[in-house]
Design brief:
With 201 residues, the chain is mostly helical. It has seven helices and no strands. 23% of the residues are buried. It is found in: Membrane.
Protein backbone atom coordinates (compact mmCIF):
# COMPACT_ATOMS: atom_id res chain seq x y z
CA UNK A 1 0.00 0.00 0.00
CA UNK A 2 1.39 3.36 -1.08
CA UNK A 3 0.44 5.92 1.63
CA UNK A 4 0.47 8.81 -0.84
CA UNK A 5 -2.19 7.07 -2.92
CA UNK A 6 -4.64 7.46 -0.04
CA UNK A 7 -4.92 11.14 -0.86
CA UNK A 8 -5.98 10.31 -4.42
CA UNK A 9 -9.31 9.18 -2.99
CA UNK A 10 -10.14 12.72 -1.81
CA UNK A 11 -9.32 14.23 -5.19
CA UNK A 12 -11.60 14.62 -8.23
CA UNK A 13 -9.00 12.54 -10.07
CA UNK A 14 -10.25 9.43 -8.26
CA UNK A 15 -13.34 9.61 -10.47
CA UNK A 16 -11.21 9.05 -13.56
CA UNK A 17 -11.07 5.46 -14.87
CA UNK A 18 -7.28 5.16 -14.47
CA UNK A 19 -7.39 6.11 -10.80
CA UNK A 20 -10.64 4.30 -10.07
CA UNK A 21 -8.88 0.99 -10.78
CA UNK A 22 -6.76 1.46 -7.63
CA UNK A 23 -8.55 -0.50 -4.94
CA UNK A 24 -9.03 1.00 -1.50
CA UNK A 25 -6.89 -0.50 1.23
CA UNK A 26 -8.52 -2.86 3.69
CA UNK A 27 -9.05 -1.97 7.35
CA UNK A 28 -6.09 -4.14 8.41
CA UNK A 29 -3.82 -2.54 5.80
CA UNK A 30 -4.80 0.93 6.94
CA UNK A 31 -4.21 0.13 10.59
CA UNK A 32 -0.92 -1.76 10.22
CA UNK A 33 0.77 0.09 7.37
CA UNK A 34 -0.45 3.65 7.90
CA UNK A 35 -2.17 4.35 11.20
CA UNK A 36 0.22 2.46 13.49
CA UNK A 37 3.45 4.03 12.14
CA UNK A 38 2.00 7.54 12.28
CA UNK A 39 0.56 6.96 15.75
CA UNK A 40 4.05 6.18 16.99
CA UNK A 41 5.30 9.66 16.04
CA UNK A 42 3.67 11.57 18.97
CA UNK A 43 4.82 8.89 21.44
CA UNK A 44 8.43 8.92 20.24
CA UNK A 45 8.61 12.72 20.00
CA UNK A 46 7.19 13.15 23.51
CA UNK A 47 9.76 10.73 24.90
CA UNK A 48 12.69 12.33 23.06
CA UNK A 49 11.70 15.88 23.94
CA UNK A 50 11.39 15.18 27.65
CA UNK A 51 14.58 13.13 27.74
CA UNK A 52 16.82 15.55 25.81
CA UNK A 53 15.43 18.93 26.86
CA UNK A 54 14.60 18.22 30.49
CA UNK A 55 17.21 15.69 31.68
CA UNK A 56 17.00 16.67 35.37
CA UNK A 57 13.20 16.50 35.36
CA UNK A 58 13.40 13.19 33.52
CA UNK A 59 15.83 11.62 36.01
CA UNK A 60 14.21 12.99 39.17
CA UNK A 61 10.50 12.79 38.40
CA UNK A 62 9.96 10.95 35.12
CA UNK A 63 11.80 7.64 35.23
CA UNK A 64 11.96 5.87 31.90
CA UNK A 65 9.56 3.06 32.77
CA UNK A 66 6.86 5.56 33.78
CA UNK A 67 7.27 7.64 30.64
CA UNK A 68 7.19 4.51 28.48
CA UNK A 69 3.93 3.46 30.13
CA UNK A 70 2.36 6.84 29.33
CA UNK A 71 3.68 6.63 25.75
CA UNK A 72 2.14 3.17 25.34
CA UNK A 73 -1.13 4.44 26.80
CA UNK A 74 -1.09 7.31 24.30
CA UNK A 75 -0.51 4.87 21.44
CA UNK A 76 -3.42 2.60 22.38
CA UNK A 77 -5.67 5.60 22.97
CA UNK A 78 -4.93 6.92 19.50
CA UNK A 79 -5.72 3.59 17.87
CA UNK A 80 -8.87 3.02 19.90
CA UNK A 81 -10.23 6.53 19.47
CA UNK A 82 -9.57 6.48 15.71
CA UNK A 83 -11.55 3.24 15.32
CA UNK A 84 -14.33 4.64 17.49
CA UNK A 85 -14.48 7.85 15.47
CA UNK A 86 -14.64 5.85 12.25
CA UNK A 87 -17.58 3.86 13.63
CA UNK A 88 -19.34 7.06 14.74
CA UNK A 89 -18.68 8.63 11.32
CA UNK A 90 -20.26 5.60 9.66
CA UNK A 91 -23.38 6.10 11.75
CA UNK A 92 -23.46 9.88 11.34
CA UNK A 93 -23.67 9.38 7.59
CA UNK A 94 -27.23 8.16 8.07
CA UNK A 95 -28.17 11.81 8.68
CA UNK A 96 -27.77 12.40 4.95
CA UNK A 97 -29.32 9.06 3.96
CA UNK A 98 -26.16 7.21 2.98
CA UNK A 99 -24.76 3.97 4.38
CA UNK A 100 -20.98 3.82 3.86
CA UNK A 101 -18.99 0.81 4.97
CA UNK A 102 -16.57 0.96 7.88
CA UNK A 103 -13.53 0.95 5.58
CA UNK A 104 -14.59 4.20 3.92
CA UNK A 105 -15.27 5.83 7.28
CA UNK A 106 -11.88 4.74 8.59
CA UNK A 107 -10.25 5.99 5.39
CA UNK A 108 -11.70 9.47 5.91
CA UNK A 109 -10.67 9.62 9.56
CA UNK A 110 -7.19 8.31 8.78
CA UNK A 111 -6.58 10.89 6.06
CA UNK A 112 -8.02 13.71 8.18
CA UNK A 113 -5.90 12.81 11.22
CA UNK A 114 -2.64 12.75 9.25
CA UNK A 115 -1.81 16.48 9.74
CA UNK A 116 -2.27 16.12 13.51
CA UNK A 117 0.16 13.19 13.63
CA UNK A 118 2.75 15.04 11.56
CA UNK A 119 2.64 18.15 13.77
CA UNK A 120 4.30 16.06 16.48
CA UNK A 121 7.52 16.29 14.46
CA UNK A 122 7.67 19.99 15.37
CA UNK A 123 7.97 19.21 19.09
CA UNK A 124 11.72 19.47 18.56
CA UNK A 125 11.25 23.23 18.18
CA UNK A 126 11.34 24.67 21.74
CA UNK A 127 8.73 27.34 21.10
CA UNK A 128 5.19 27.14 22.44
CA UNK A 129 3.87 29.88 20.14
CA UNK A 130 5.36 28.16 17.08
CA UNK A 131 3.78 24.84 18.00
CA UNK A 132 0.42 26.50 18.64
CA UNK A 133 0.50 28.00 15.13
CA UNK A 134 1.52 24.66 13.61
CA UNK A 135 -1.31 22.87 15.41
CA UNK A 136 -3.82 25.52 14.32
CA UNK A 137 -2.78 25.02 10.69
CA UNK A 138 -3.03 21.25 11.13
CA UNK A 139 -6.58 21.56 12.51
CA UNK A 140 -7.64 23.64 9.50
CA UNK A 141 -6.08 21.10 7.14
CA UNK A 142 -7.87 18.27 8.95
CA UNK A 143 -11.22 20.03 8.58
CA UNK A 144 -10.56 20.50 4.86
CA UNK A 145 -9.63 16.82 4.50
CA UNK A 146 -12.83 15.74 6.27
CA UNK A 147 -14.84 17.91 3.87
CA UNK A 148 -13.12 16.44 0.82
CA UNK A 149 -13.43 12.92 2.22
CA UNK A 150 -17.18 13.29 2.68
CA UNK A 151 -17.46 14.72 -0.81
CA UNK A 152 -15.36 12.23 -2.74
CA UNK A 153 -15.26 9.07 -0.61
CA UNK A 154 -18.85 9.17 0.65
CA UNK A 155 -19.87 10.83 -2.63
CA UNK A 156 -22.08 13.45 -0.93
CA UNK A 157 -22.58 16.30 -3.39
CA UNK A 158 -25.58 18.23 -2.05
CA UNK A 159 -24.04 21.27 -0.33
CA UNK A 160 -26.25 21.32 2.76
CA UNK A 161 -25.74 17.62 3.48
CA UNK A 162 -22.03 17.94 2.76
CA UNK A 163 -21.49 20.78 5.24
CA UNK A 164 -23.76 19.23 7.90
CA UNK A 165 -22.06 15.83 7.83
CA UNK A 166 -18.57 17.37 7.67
CA UNK A 167 -19.18 19.55 10.72
CA UNK A 168 -20.69 16.64 12.65
CA UNK A 169 -17.57 14.56 11.94
CA UNK A 170 -15.26 17.45 12.90
CA UNK A 171 -17.07 17.88 16.23
CA UNK A 172 -16.82 14.15 16.88
CA UNK A 173 -13.11 14.21 16.08
CA UNK A 174 -12.63 17.12 18.48
CA UNK A 175 -14.22 15.06 21.25
CA UNK A 176 -11.98 12.17 20.30
CA UNK A 177 -8.83 14.24 20.73
CA UNK A 178 -10.16 15.49 24.07
CA UNK A 179 -10.57 11.86 25.16
CA UNK A 180 -6.94 11.17 24.20
CA UNK A 181 -5.74 14.15 26.23
CA UNK A 182 -7.87 13.36 29.28
CA UNK A 183 -7.00 9.67 29.09
CA UNK A 184 -3.29 10.49 29.05
CA UNK A 185 -3.66 12.74 32.10
CA UNK A 186 -5.66 10.12 34.00
CA UNK A 187 -3.06 7.49 33.14
CA UNK A 188 -0.27 9.74 34.37
CA UNK A 189 -2.12 10.39 37.63
CA UNK A 190 -2.75 6.66 38.13
CA UNK A 191 0.93 5.90 37.66
CA UNK A 192 1.83 8.68 40.13
CA UNK A 193 -0.54 7.22 42.74
CA UNK A 194 0.76 3.70 42.17
CA UNK A 195 4.36 4.77 42.66
CA UNK A 196 3.41 6.69 45.84
CA UNK A 197 1.63 3.63 47.23
CA UNK A 198 4.61 1.38 46.46
CA UNK A 199 7.00 3.80 48.17
CA UNK A 200 4.84 3.85 51.34
CA UNK A 201 4.97 0.07 51.49
Amino acid sequence: MNPIRLFHFISPKHLQPTVRKVSKPSVSQLMLLYVLPLSLIPCVMMYLRLYHHYPKLFVDHLPGNRLLMVSAELLFLQLGVLLLMAWITQNLAEMVNIKPDFRDSLLIMTIATTPMWLTSLFYIVPSLSFNVVVHAIAVLLSILLVYRGVRYIFDVRERGALVTLSMAIVCTAGLGFAVILIGSLISWEAIEQLQFAVQKM
